[in-house]
Specification:
The complex is a heteropentamer of chains A (about 260), B (about 375), C (about 300), D (about 300) and E (about 240). With about 260 residues, chain A is α/β, with parallel strands linked by helices. Helix content of chain A is about 35%, strand content about 25%. The chains are: A alpha/beta (about 260), B alpha/beta (about 375), C mainly alpha (about 300), D mainly alpha (about 300), E alpha/beta (about 240). Bound molecules: adenosine-5'-triphosphate (2 copies) and magnesium ion (2 copies). Chain C: It comes from Thiothrix eikelboomii.
Chain lengths: ~260, ~375, ~300, ~300, ~240
């Protein structure tokens, strides 16, 4: 059973000066699923994310990834273990080319990143893999473009490709469709679906349309604590969720 | 042998714009030019030229300049030399090239002791002479308990050590001392320490701005009323930077002051006409040293370093500056020094009239005796 | 003399008081830096040179224009502040949108020029300036003699420091200043004349340096390089306090003065370095400084 | 043949460097090379990691003092002396770096400045540095035990070799896998962290590299002038290296060398004779002009001109 | 009423640049009093830039912008707000050195009939609860509420709102819709940049559609159903 659980939090708690933003949260994320975290504004979703990726230190509680206690590890160490986060804002290296962006991510595993005496030509052997990843997200034609010039949606796609280059076992996505036009939302949603094969994904998302399409399982947070958990049908039928999060007429929203 | 490159070239190295600019600086260049003009502008029918450079009080700059002068510009002798640190660095280069170094304004005794060389001619003064000249009479006059406020670097340490030796030899006692980092502006803590030590004389083993600031602090806290303040190295420019009330009646030692007698007045007058400012001890020394050097070149018939130095040491310098003087084998120019008192504001006839002569000190009483290791006549 | 454990309490009190005096002086200087940094995110390297100019103006005023100390205390900061405004308007503003490192380099250049001009014109030896008559004399505190003038410095600096702190932390104007630091464009879009505010604040920060210069003239030697070395110590204080923290600059300024005073008593050789050592220790424990916010 | 073609420019430069001491005073050239290397090392931090260190004088001086002291007292050959100086600077760079790379931008500049000031006072007071006097008369020694460096010309070629080595190392590290990571960090640091790079370690590594190469420059300079003094440790030296880099063009490979040549040339020109008091004013003005009008520096502007016109 | 009837905002032939890049290529639009008009378009089409250009927050501009009868092209940025205009930026612009309440009170009132603090806290109870915490410590959604509340307080009667529903939970989005309708009733003039077409469609009077820095279509409320097809191709709805 526990084999199935890739990420687990035990009584995860974070307080800020007398205010508890995350309150005894116990999450169990199953390997291979897309798990969504939703909840009203200020419920503590981003804080949970920040705790998981060490941008914040928990006040108490434990985080286990693949059975290993990672509560005390550094941010970069956690990424190296295979738990990788993508950002709410698009996070790319603007003055590198699209290909170089992906290569930076591939390069880390090469173990040559401290080698200042070698020519950067050694990185060229990463090109085929980088190109394959770009092809996956439909960016192959832009490989030599400077990232700065890409439109927003493509930057998000690039960011995803970069993240995938790390070949993470588990991805954390914080509002992946935020600020996107409808077209791009659909593209990104499809992309997430595509990469979720053989991967676990935990995402925060306000776009219920996306959540309903993608999520295998949903945890609803409210005031720092878990309100309920289940698949979309169960959760959206819960009157407490309707009241605190969806507002009364939630169904039209989803239907849209 | 004759004159190399058909001219005699003298380089003047000094701080032209920094802390010591007023002490030597462009005035030293003017003094050297004046000496050349007085000498007739030519030696052995060959022209005499002057080059000058700003060492910015940095040993690295000074030594690089001297190196370039000797390597590239064929300079035959080097004058000026203000900060001891720069002087010692310049000496290293000049000595190796066997060129005379006419040190007019630097005070370190090292030129004729630790780092002595047959090519050094240390002219106007050194700190030992100052300490002897200033401290000894005060101890004799009853100042027995001394406190030192010392600049925390080699110069200050040396000054304190020499002076403390003089004090103890003459029956006084050092009751305390404090080492103050160079460039400190606020002396209040150190003044407080001096105050609680119960000393009746407080010696300031520092120079320039450090001296000015420490004296200001002393008067602010009333230390100057409890104890006699003693400046161990005081230039006329320092005196002029201070409110006369703070420094009046301080006794100190100098190798030259312009208002001393007719000879110094006559020369100072001429210098002032040329340069616009009253000469300092260093500038007068630069003149005196240059003149002596040129005479030696003439008599030796060459500008070769060894021959000229030998001639300089064989002949006694004698002018308005160098009185009862000789250039010893170790390179020390021993001459009369003067203990003076700083005049009060109402005693001063003009801006330059700041010192009153108290006592003339014979050179061999105040300068260190020759260090046997530096007696180049025996080598 | 009575001593306890080899410590002479009378002398120690004296040193503490002296430390307090220096500390209030540091506070005044670091306050100016902290304000300018807080608002413009630039390190004003010219602050030391402007402090020097303040002292020189006081001296020039007395020497040539018959300007008494009291008037200098009022007028010189204004003149220096005005000069600062010119610097801001014509040198800093054109590069305000560039990386802040450039403005640091720019003010570094300004400092070099100012210092160079003053030593070229006035030479580098110190100029005398006496303590004004009404502040001369010493007060006997029992354990030491406190020169009245030093007491005066404490009073003036502390008043100015805390007045400024209050204005920035507790008033609406202060809220504008803090907001302007973060997003000047938006603040301006809300209807606030940010360029004017920036200019005036810079002028004020610089005027503080001018004021410190006037206060310093009677006790320190007035010379072209008087600001340069002091400035670095003041930088260290601002770093220890946490850059951009106004209260931090004041409190740290005062406490560093005291710590330095103690060092002078117990181990004078380290008095020049103690502040930097404190800085290293503080940075090891709190990288953002004592009162700074973690970024 | 291919090699010659693609390196035409470099080969011409090196050939020029080989013959130039016959026309120009070699000590001046050596000074330019030493400062050029120093500025290039500094530029590694500023131009390629985007961090302005205002305390690089510390490394120049440490290299110089250590080499100077060992050469004077331990009878080493020059190459070993220089190696020790370089290592010492690297160690110091590690210490300073661990304290400072946690901070960014101006904060970083201030922290490095204060640390180097601490070191300055240490050098001022420590007995082995001879305080104000500096270490004087440092022997140049015999390279590998048999090439006498007292001859300015052989010293020049040695300095040139050291310079080329250092310069090559900088070029290499900028264009290496490591350099690629640095570039990424400069572009977007939080993203680099999230990709699993321990950013501080990379910055620290770059800092140590830069410190070591600055030390190399300092060590070599100490041998050239046979003197090491507090000037090298003073904060104005830290400012000067910024100026050189800025004048030449930060973030360019050749900028620092050009900048060093310009600044050293100006200093040399003004140190002679009556102009000395203008030097600070001139330097300050150059700073101001560069910042206001030529932020790309000489080489940067040149590159831009070439790019726009050809 | 002014000569132009009840027109509160008119933009004509507006061009705007960021440095070298030319972003807006001649925008013409107008908003009447009491009207709610949206700017629709894809990412990067220049909607935010249009709002910023109106506030004089971009590099270079040309053309004409008339607010409340005053030509503002030559006006300094800080003068514009005082014409009665309030701007809620896309990136929210919450100040971290101010606490929530200070943030709320920061923009100077430009007219006298703004909402009171109490009314605002009633509308956004989250803000009341967190009123003493540092502005940027709020969650993303809370910051969004703060940014909007802040300009409601100033009494501005022309509002430029950039993606105010971004990152908000569905409940709050609904509530915001109600707030906007209320504001409209109070006769406020609103120019709304919105990604969420389903939010904007029912409450807006008119829509402008932007593409590549140009206005490519103007759609009246009544024509919406007729032009669905067109909107679909333009926006990918
Ligand atoms: N650093 C902090 N200091 C103080 N309070 C904080 C801090 N970070 C977050 N909070 C508070 O914790 C609560 C949870 O914030 P969090 O950002 O996790 O919410 P969220 O669920 O992501 O909301 P949203 O959907 O609006 O992004 C909020 O009320 C916020 O004000
Ligand atoms: N500060 C800037 N500097 C340079 N270009 C910019 C800047 N801000 C925006 N742009 C460019 O201007 C164009 C229009 O941007 P704008 O933000 O107005 O778009 P938008 O329609 O609001 O889209 P979004 O959904 O991304 O907010 C885009 O191509 C963008 O890349
Ligand atoms: Mg969030
Ligand atoms: Mg936008």
């Amino acid at each position: 059973m526990s084999e199935q659980i890739i990420l687990e939090t035990r009584n995860l708690t974070k307080g800020f000066k007398g205010f508890t933003a995350v309150d005894n949260v116990n999450l169990k994320i199953q390997r291979g699923q897309i798990h969504a975290l939703i909840g009203p504004n200020g419920a503590g979703k981003t804080t949970v994310f920040n705790l998981l990726t060490k941008y914040l230190t928990p006040s108490s509680g434990q985080i286990l990834f693949k059975g290993q206690d990672i509560t005390a590890l550094e941010a970069s160490a956690i990424a190296q273990l295979g738990l990788v986060r993508s950002f709410q804002i698009s996070a790319v290296f603007p003055r590198l080319t699209v290909l170089e962006n992906v290569r930076i991510a591939l390069q880390r595993k090469e173990g040559n990143s401290f080698q200042f005496w070698k020519s950067d030509k050694v990185l060229e052997r990463l090109n085929p893999r980088a190109e394959a990843l770009l092809a996956d997200v439909g960016l192959l034609d832009f490989a030599q473009a400077t990232t700065l010039d890409l439109p927003y949606g493509r930057k998000r796609a690039l960011e995803l490709a970069t993240t995938l280059a790390l070949d993470p076992e588990m991805l954390l996505l914080d509002e992946p469709t935020q600020g996107m036009g409808h077209e791009d939302v659909a593209v990104v949603a499809a992309l997430i679906k595509k990469v979720s094969a053989e991967r676990t994904i935990l995402m925060v998302e306000h776009n219920l349309h996306v959540v309903s399409q993608l999520a295998d399982r949903i945890t609803v947070l409210q005031r720092g604590a878990v309100l309920t958990e289940g698949d979309y049908a169960t959760v959206s039928a819960d009157p407490r969720v309707k009241e605190a999060y969806l507002g009364v007429a939630a169904d039209e929203e989803v239907a849209a | 042998e004759g004159i190399s490159d058909d001219k005699v070239k003298i380089g003047v190295l000094a701080d032209m714009g920094g802390t010591y600019a007023d002490v030597c600086g462009k005035g030293c260049v003017a003094a050297v030019e004046m000496a050349i003009a007085d000498f007739g502008g030519k030696v052995l029918d060959k022209p005499i030229e002057v080059v000058s450079a700003d060492d910015q009080n940095k040993p690295d700059v000074g030594s690089a300049v001297v190196r370039e002068w000797l390597d590239k510009d064929k300079v035959d002798a080097i004058g000026g030399i203000v900060a001891s640190s720069v002087g010692l660095a310049a000496a290293k280069v000049a000595n190796e090239a066997k060129k005379p170094l006419l040190i007019s304004t630097a005070g370190s005794p090292a030129f004729t002791t630790k780092q002595c060389s047959p090519y050094n001619a240390h002219w106007a003064y050194d700190v030992v002479a100052l300490a002897n000249g200033t401290v000894k009479p005060l101890v004799a006059a009853g100042k027995k308990k001394w406190f030192f406020i010392t600049a925390d670097y080699e110069f200050g340490h040396a000054l304190e050590k020499v002076s403390a030796g003089v004090i103890e030899k003459n029956g006084g006692e050092v009751v305390g001392s404090v080492k103050v980092p160079l460039g400190t502006t606020d002396y209040s803590s150190y003044i407080l320490q001096a105050q609680s030590s119960g000393a009746d004389a407080v010696a300031l083993a520092n120079a320039g701005k450090d001296f000015v600031n420490s004296l200001k602090g002393a008067s602010e806290f009333g230390l100057n009323k409890q104890a006699t303040m003693v400046g161990l190295l005081v230039f006329s420019s320092d005196v002029q930077a201070l409110d006369p009330a703070l420094i009046a009646d301080m006794r100190l030692t100098t190798g030259f002051f312009s208002e001393m007698d007719d000879k110094t007045k006559e020369w100072s007058q001429r210098f002032k006409e040329k340069f616009g400012k009253t000469p300092t001890m260093g500038q007068a020394g630069a003149y005196s040293a240059t003149l002596h050097y040129l005479n030696a070149v003439k008599e030796a018939g060459t500008d070769d370093g060894d021959a000229v130095m030998a001639k300089m040491k064989a002949t006694k310098p004698d002018d308005f500056f160098a009185r009862n003087a000789e250039l010893r084998a170790d390179g020390r120019m021993v001459h009369d020094m003067y203990q003076v008192r700083v005049k009060k504001a109402d005693e001063r006839a003009n801006d330059d009239d700041i010192f009153a002569l108290e006592q003339t000190l014979a050179g061999n009483e105040v300068y260190l005796p020759m260090d046997a290791a530096c007696d180049f006549s025996k080598k | 003399m009575d001593t306890i454990l080899g410590i002479n309490p009378v002398a120690l009190f004296g040193q503490l008081l002296v430390g307090l005096i220096n500390g209030s002086f540091y506070a005044l200087l670091s306050l100016g830096l902290a304000i300018i940094f807080g608002l413009l995110r630039i390190i004003n390297f010219a602050q030391g040179a402007l402090y020097m100019i303040g002292a020189f103006l006081a001296w020039l005023g007395l020497e040539y224009w018959g300007l008494s100390y009291g008037w200098a205390l009022l007028i010189v900061p204004l003149v220096v502040g005005l000069f600062g405004i010119l610097i801001e308007r014509f040198l800093i503003r054109p590069i305000a949108h560039e990386d802040h490192l450039y403005s640091l380099l720019l003010t570094f250049g300004v400092a070099l020029v100012l210092q160079g001009v003053f030593s070229h014109v006035f030479g580098s030896s110190g100029k005398p300036y006496s303590i004004p008559e009404f502040l001369q004399g010493v007060a006997n505190l029992g354990f030491m003699y406190l020169p009245i003038y030093r007491g005066w410095i404490i009073v003036v600096s502390l008043l100015v420091c805390f007045g400024t702190w209050w204005a920035i932390e507790k008033t609406k104007l202060g809220a504008y200043l803090r907001a302007g630091t973060e997003n000047a464009r938006l603040l301006q879009a809300f209807g606030i004349n940010v360029p004017l505010m920036v200019t005036l604040t810079f002028g004020f920060g610089v005027a503080l340096a001018g004021l410190a210069g006037v206060l310093a003239a009677p006790i320190y030697s007035v010379s072209p390089d008087m600001g340069a070395n002091l400035l670095i110590v003041v930088f260290a204080i601002v770093v220890i306090g946490g850059m951009g923290s106004i209260g931090g600059a004041i409190i740290t300024g005062i406490s560093m003065g005291v710590i330095e005073g103690l060092t002078k008593y117990f181990y004078p050789e380290a008095s020049n370095t103690i502040i930097f050592m404190v800085m290293v220790v503080v940075l090891l424990i709190k990288p953002a400084g004592l009162f700074g916010k973690e970024v | 043949m291919e090699f010659i073609k693609s390196n035409k420019f470099n080969i011409i430069l090196i050939a020029l460097a080989l013959v130039i001491p016959f026309g120009v005073y070699p000590v001046f050239l050596m000074k330019v090379l030493c400062f050029g290397l120093f500025a290039a090392a500094f530029n590694l931090m500023l131009g390629f990691v985007g961090m302005l260190s205002f305390g690089h004088a510390a490394f120049l001086a440490t290299g110089g003092y250590v080499t100077g002291y060992l050469m004077s007292n331990a009878d080493l050959t020059p190459e070993l002396g220089i190696l020790c100086g370089t290592l010492a600077s690297a160690v110091l760079g590690y210490l300073f770096g661990s304290l400072s790379v946690k901070r960014e931008g101006i904060y970083f500049a201030m922290v490095t400045l204060a640390l180097s000031q601490l070191l300055f006072f240490f050098f001022l007071q420590a007995p082995f540095t001879e305080g104000e006097n500096g270490l004087q008369g440092i022997p140049r020694g015999k390279l590998f035990g048999f090439i006498d460096l007292n001859n300015n010309l052989s010293m020049y070629y040695f300095v040139l070799a050291v310079f080329l080595l250092g310069f090559w190392l900088i070029y290499r590290s900028v264009h290496s896998p490591f350099g690629q990571v640095l570039k990424a960090i400069r572009e977007n640091e939080p993203r680099a962290i999230s990709l699993g790079y321990s950013v501080r370690q990379y910055k620290l590594m770059a800092f140590v590299l830069s410190a070591a190469l600055s030390g190399l420059a300092g060590s070599t300079k100490a041998l050239v002038f046979q003197l090491e003094s507090l000037t090298d440790a003073h904060w104005q030296m830290s400012g000067e290296v910024v100026l050189m880099t800025l004048v030449g063009g930060m973030g360019t490979i050749f900028g620092p060398l050009v900048g060093a040549a310009v600044v050293v040339g100006i200093e040399n020109f003004f140190s002679g004779g009556e102009l000395g008091t203008y030097i600070h004013i001139i330097m300050g003005l150059i700073f101001i002009i560069c910042v206001l009008a030529f932020r790309n520096g000489i080489v940067g502007e040149f590159n831009k001109f070439v790019k726009n016109n050809f | 009423m002014k000569a132009q009837g009840n027109e509160k905002l008119r933009v004509s032939d507006l061009h705007a640049f960021y440095g070298e890049s030319h972003i807006l290529h001649g925008i013409d639009l107008h908003v009447n009093q009491g009207e709610l008009v949206t700017l629709l378009g894809r990412n990067g089409s220049g909607r935010s830039t249009t709002l910023k250009a109106i506030m004089n927050m971009v590099g270079r501009r040309s053309g004409s912008i008339n607010i409340n009868g005053t030509e503002t092209m030559g006006l300094a940025a800080h003068r514009i707000a005082h014409l009665g205009i309030g701007f809620c930026p896309e990136e929210r612009g919450i100040f971290s050195s101010l606490n929530v309440e200070e943030n709320l009170l920061l923009p100077p009132a430009v007219r006298s009939d703004g909402m009171s603090l109490d009314e605002i806290y009633q509308m956004f109870p989250n803000l009341y609860e967190r009123r003493t915490s540092q502005g940027t410590r709020l969650s993303g959604g809370e910051q969004q509420m703060l940014a909007l509340a802040r300009i409601l307080r100033t009494g501005a009667n022309i509002l430029l709102l950039d993606e105010i529903t971004e990152g908000l939970a569905p409940v709050i989005v609904k509530k915001l819709g109600e707030v906007l309708i209320q504001l409209k009733r109070k006769n406020l003039t609103i120019l709304l940049v919105e990604q969420n077409f389903h939010f904007a469609a029912p409450i807006a009077d008119r829509h402008y559609v932007m593409e590549h820095g140009r206005i490519v279509e103007e759609v009246q409320q009544a024509e919406l159903s007729a032009k669905t097809e067109l909107l679909n191709t333009l926006l990918g709805v």
